[in-house]
């Protein structure tokens, strides 16, 4: 049984020999990653897109749902789904990644949803511009942050709460943030935030508030749990940490050949092996992808393809002349701000961990 943490307490770190708990397995059963073979698809089918639900999936009737936009504004808005659909439609293709992606690979392991590498997906999201709604409401002078509250309700580290996150006003009005009601050309499914959710291109998944209920413009800095406690890069329990925000560069490869059922070790035949994968970053465009077949000792640059949009992953390809033996494939991405690390960037909550993927392969 996972210990219940006190309000404000940093995430618990497992002992070096501590196995994944039943509580973590329950989380893993409720949530799911994207099978890595789906990297071949430009858009991730809705049922394969990664999913993280903090509490329960709310049961909401689209016919009676309303979005309330208020706070430090001149004209509060109360909008139903039809009113949102009447406003100009905007679509963005966006790669979403969970901030905890890769957590289960860290040593020591932060205790939480035990992601490996698959907490990612790319979809086309359609809705109306958040900036246009804020302009319509008339943000008053002195506004600082904008908070977003969902209908999902639960307890976390002893704090009962509705899931609520905030952006600075400058981030909230920076063009591409969506109040979205469609995913891949269809109404949002329940698990992905129906009837309406927030899409914040380039940010980790915690910012994309689902089952959206209220938008509140604030004249003071937001100090809610999900910003100030839950999503922080803490070195230790006494470290206040830095907030998690934009997605760090990451590349993944479609595991080649075929797998062993339990270990997922891959088997390929000797000769040319065509490798394919995707790379993305929320900081700046991906500029380079490199592949290693010797567990990160040497690197060779792959060929990069074009992204569907500024916020979508880029395809990459590489031809490996595989000789018989055992190998560990690694892949890493670089953007204008730096290169994906080979080793773990450890923190107490296992957030924004973008260490390189490793794929064991036997060439026969």
The count of β-strands is: 23
User: Beta-sheet strand percentage?
Assistant: 35-45%
CATH topology of the largest domain: Sulfite Oxidase, Chain A, domain 2
Total discrete domains: 2
Structural class: mainly beta
Q: Any idea what the CATH superfamily of the largest domain is called?
A: Oxidoreductase, molybdopterin-binding domain
Shape: globular
Enumerate how many helices there are, as a single number.
5
Sequence of secondary-structure elements? HEEHEEHEEHEEEEHEEEEEEEEEEEEE
Describe it for me?
- It is a single chain.
- This protein is mainly β and 364 residues long.
- It has 2 domains: 22-243, Oxidoreductase, molybdopterin-binding domain (Sulfite Oxidase, Chain A, domain 2, Alpha-Beta Complex); 250-363, Immunoglobulin-like, CATH 2.60.40.650.
- It has helices at residues 22-30, 81-86, 130-137, 169-172, 225-230, and strands spanning 66-71, 77-80, 90-97, 120-129, 145-156, 159-168, 178-183, 186-187, 197-199, 212-218, 232-233, 242-243, 250-253, 258-259, 266-268, 271-280, 286-292, 300-301, 303-304, 314-322, 325-335, 338-339, 357-363.
- Strands 14, 15, 17, 18, 21, 22 and 23 form a 7-stranded mixed β-sheet that branches. Strands 2-1-10-5-6 form a 5-stranded mixed β-sheet. Strands 3, 4, 7, 8 and 9 form a 5-stranded antiparallel β-sheet that branches.
- Strand 14 (258-259) and strand 15 (266-268) form a beta hairpin.
């Amino acid at each position: 049984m996972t210990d219940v943490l006190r309000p404000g307490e940093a995430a618990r770190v497992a002992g070096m020999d501590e196995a994944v708990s039943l509580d973590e397995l329950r989380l893993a059963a409720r949530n799911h990653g994207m099978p890595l073979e789906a990297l071949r698809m430009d858009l991730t089918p809705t049922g394969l897109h990664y999913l993280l639900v903090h509490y329960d999936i709310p049961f909401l009737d689209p016919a009676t749902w309303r979005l309330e936009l208020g706070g430090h504004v001149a004209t509060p808005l109360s909008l139903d789904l039809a009113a949102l659909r009447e406003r100009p439609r905007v679509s963005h293709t966006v790669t979403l990644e969970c901030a905890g992606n890769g957590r289960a690979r860290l040593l020591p392991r932060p205790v939480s949803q035990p992601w490996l590498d698959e907490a990612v997906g790319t979809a086309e999201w359609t809705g109306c511009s958040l900036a246009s709604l804020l302009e319509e409401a008339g943000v008053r002078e002195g506004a600082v942050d904008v908070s977003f509250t969902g209908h999902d309700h639960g307890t976390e580290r002893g704090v009962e709460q509705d899931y609520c996150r905030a952006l600075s006003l400058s981030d909230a009005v920076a063009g591409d943030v969506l109040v979205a009601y469609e995913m891949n050309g269809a109404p949002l499914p329940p698990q992905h935030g129906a009837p309406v959710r927030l899409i914040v291109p380039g940010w980790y998944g915690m910012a994309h508030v689902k089952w959206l209920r209220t938008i509140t413009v604030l004249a003071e800095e937001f100090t809610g749990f999900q910003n100030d406690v839950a999503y922080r890069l803490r070195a230790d329990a006494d470290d206040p940490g830095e907030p998690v925000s934009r997605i760090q560069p990451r590349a993944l490869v479609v595991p080649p050949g075929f797998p062993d059922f339990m270990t997922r070790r891959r088997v390929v035949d000797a000769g040319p092996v065509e490798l394919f994968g995707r790379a993305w970053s929320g900081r700046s465009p991906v500029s380079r992808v490199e592949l290693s077949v010797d567990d990160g000792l040497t690197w060779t640059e792959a060929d990069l393809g074009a992204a569907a949009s500024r916020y979508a992953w880029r395809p990459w390809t590489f031809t490996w002349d595989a000789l018989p033996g055992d190998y560990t494939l690694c892949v890493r991405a670089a953007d204008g701000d730096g290169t994906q690390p080979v080793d773990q960037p450890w923190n107490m909550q296992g957030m924004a961990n973008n260490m390189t993927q490793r794929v064991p392969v036997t060439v026969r």
